[in-house]
Predict the 3D structure of the following.
Amino acid sequence: MEHSNEPIADARAEIRRASEDADGEAREQLLSLDEGLTELAGDKVENDGPPKENRVKQVEEKIVGLANELDDDHRAQDRLETARDYLDQYRQERGIPTDGE
């Protein structure tokens, strides 16, 4: 069964929009998130890297952590929450379990 990478593309678009308004360390962290999402979209699995389900969890944790750090920037928080929703959609489409499953 072939899966769409559209949720990842949509999540990346939200991250990039958030980075347009950010500066300094927040912008760097957002760009790092974009790179992590790019790796997921390309299905690149490094032999010495974590399995895909762990990588999805790592990216999600970074999104949540950064949203918490940007608590005074509601627009960025909204974009990060939307990106997380897209990542969850990607997880569901791929059948990647969450911690509770």
